[in-house]
Request: fold
Amino acid sequence: MLRSLALVSLAAGAVLIGKPAAADMPQCSQRDSVVSYLEKKYKESPVAIGVTSNGGLVEVLSTNGGGTWTIIVTSAKGWSCLVAAGEGWKSIAMKPDEGPST
Reply:
């Protein structure tokens, strides 16, 4: 899992460069600061969430219409880092029989 997250983080670097938030926002900070910044600057709020195997939190934040989106990963101590950002987020509804595997 950690290796996958590292690969996603490396691949996402190019995506981060494309969004203005990356240019004027620290890449890591306390979660409250990151979420507050994204809400004020881009009107983004959490739309998806998941827990990593090591207890971290992965969140997707997006505008109401999906105009912009940001993915952050937060440690158990509340330290959040940007992983990726972009435009055109679209949520896809899962069918009842396509729930997460256990």
Residues 1-23 have pLDDT under 50 and may be disordered. Residues 65 and 89 are 8 Å apart (CA to CA). The helical segments are 2-18, 20-24, 31-42. The two ends are 16 Å apart (CA to CA).
